[in-house]
Amino acid sequence: MRATRLGAVLAAALTATLTIGGCGSSEPTGGSEAAATSPAAPQGPVKLTYWTWAPNMDKIVAVWNKDHPDIQITVSKQAGGDDAAAKFLTAAKAGNPPDLVQAEYQHLPSFIAADAVADLKAETAAIKGEFGEGIWGLVTLGTEAVYAVPQDSGPMMLFYRQDLFDKHGLQVPKTWQEYGEAARTLRKKDPKAYLGTFSSKDPGAFTGLAQQAGAQWWSISGESWKVNVADEPTKKVADFWGGLVKEGAIDDTPFFTPEWNKALNDGKLLTWPSAVWAPGVLSSNAPKAKGKWAVAPLPQWNAGENFSGFWGGSSVAVSAKTPNKAAAAQFATWINTDPKALDLLVKEAAIYPAAAKAQAALGAAPDYFANQPDFWQQAATVSAGARGFTFGPNVGVTYNAFKDGFDKALQDGTSFSDAVQAMHEATVADMRKSGFTLAS
Amino acid sequence: MAAIAPQRRSTRSGIGLAPTALLLLGALYCLFPVSWLLIASSKSPGELFTTPTLAFGTGFLSNVTDLFAYRDGVFWLWMGNTLLYAGGGALLSTAVSAISGYALAKYRFPGRKLIFNLLIGGILVPAVVLAIPQYLLFSKIGLADTYWAVLLPQILHPYSVYLARIYATAAIPDSLLEAGRIDGASEGRLLGRLALPLMVPGLVTIFLFQFVAIWNNFLLPFIMLGDDGKFPLTVGLYTLLAAGANQPSLYNLILTGTLLSIIPLIALFLTMQRYWKTDLSSGAVK
């Protein structure tokens, strides 16, 4: 008997759907609002816990709690990142997960594979249209189920030092070829500065760039996974950066390190292909350069295209074990689609909302980019061109293989596409070991 | 003979220099990170990555104010939690270690050797390995995400029991206990009036060990606790560091918080130093 994990997931999803169906028949369908007016628990308000790391989420939840006396949410601020995912999975396994959890898109599939999150298909039917297709795919994995409500997204753009570009007479690169040439030109004009850096510590950034090139590392077909981490687009991206690093045209200092911060501050690093949330990082790590940065769409692989990828972003998932699924789903919908909540998310939590309406309604540019009043319009355009992507159930393994492989490639000067091949092999081996069925 | 003596003295001082230099190096090695922390926490966010590493900044007071204002002073809540975990845990742990160490040292009963060997084995098992199984067990009895979830696992500490047993063997003469028994003292009275006072220096050592270990513990509370109102400082400050991919880490608050969090430890060591010294020297003689 080769019971697959995906099979189990699908079975669980099926039961979940049936349960919802059962509940739904006693209530008018389609209304998460309807669920609110007829609370499932007659005795006292429903109490829910919510694990998140977005800043000031407690303030936003306080607004909900005031308007919804029958559904009271308690925010528990966690440490973000990979540890948060591991902690949630452990808690789910032990049987005491929170009711609601912030789930980064790349970790959501591992939650699904562990049966830790509930299918919200019925509850979210009404809000599907609020999100772009690329984003929606991140919470459905291309299946019929809906495992979370998208909260924020990180479409990638090219951030560059406008003043230094002008100083050295550089053009904003429209294609990656132009980017490479600009990098070489800059080295000649200012041997101490680099146009950019390749970070072997940030698989998320690389994944975003690979998405832009059209990579599809995972996909679900029927009951099995298709894995192709080392596909042509990914190899193309890897070799492009590998070549630039090897010839010394760009640096290899990882992002978010003190050295990197210093280079940003000193004007020794002229571009950062990053996501829409970059202003927050730049303003805190390179406060001196305020007003000197500008933003443009990512360079393209073929002139005239308009593609981008995602780096970061998260969704709100409902725990599979929660006894108050309807209430939790109602909150997850509210916080990510209600105009009042979206407004608070932007202002208090400083996130770039996933809901399309909210993206269009963003007003003044971030303070750090005061010189670029059309910042948000640019972001919305880029966001619309962000390519869809499906994450697999063991992104952690793939990302670790990225760090190991690219660290080694940088150290030994070996080919970047070999590192990509190693990522692929590590991913496949881990999925086989965990009992997933792989389509070859 | 006379010729040998000064020569010997000179070689001794020659050898003496090397350990002193080594110790100085060791002291530097230990103190440098602390001084770096002191300097870094005085820098404002703008200065942190732009000024030289060993130059003091100008933002210490604003860092402290920001830290205390962060999420309505949650820092104090975490500080209080850490004090509770470390103080309460260390006290309970010392009490348990004292009694079990005394019993293992001074009573002959079947299974004593086995228990002691198990303890020695327990020392070899790193606490980190146990954290997840403990979490699963605590979840089963419904104690996960409570104060007890952090306190209870740290009460039984094999190394402390081992220390207490060794100390009790050396510090409490059997004849003294015998004399007490002949005078008609109960076993409880012997423990309370005779054994424990003799064991005080050893118990202080255990208390300090455990206090520091719990103060610095990260993994156990990280796994056990979901409610950020129960976090100790280590886990709490970590939420500032790992603020999510799209949020900058609040480095200046973390550095200031870390600096403030070691002050109670330093104070504790300075006040307890007397006992600590007594213990080290007495251990040397016995």
From TrEMBL, chain A:
The keyword Signal applies. The keyword Membrane applies. PROSITE patterns: PROKAR_LIPOPROTEIN. Keywords: Cell membrane, Lipoprotein, Membrane, Palmitate, Signal. Residues 1-21 form the signal peptide. Pfam families: SBP_bac_1. This is Sugar ABC transporter substrate-binding protein. The lineage of its organism: Bacteria, Bacillati, Actinomycetota, Actinomycetes, Streptosporangiales.
Automatic annotation (TrEMBL), chain B:
Keywords: Cell membrane, Membrane, Transmembrane, Transmembrane helix, Transport. InterPro entries: MetI-like, MetI-like_sf. The keyword Ribosomal protein does not apply. GO terms for cellular component: plasma membrane. Coiled coil: none annotated. It holds the Pfam family BPD_transp_1. This is Sugar ABC transporter permease. The chain crosses the membrane at residues 21-39, 83-105, 114-136, 194-215, 250-270. GO terms for biological process: transmembrane transport. It is found in: Cell membrane. It comes from the Bacteria. Its main location: membrane. Belongs to the binding-protein-dependent transport system permease family. Residues 79-272 form the ABC transmembrane type-1 domain. It comes from Nonomuraea glycinis. It is a multi-pass membrane protein.
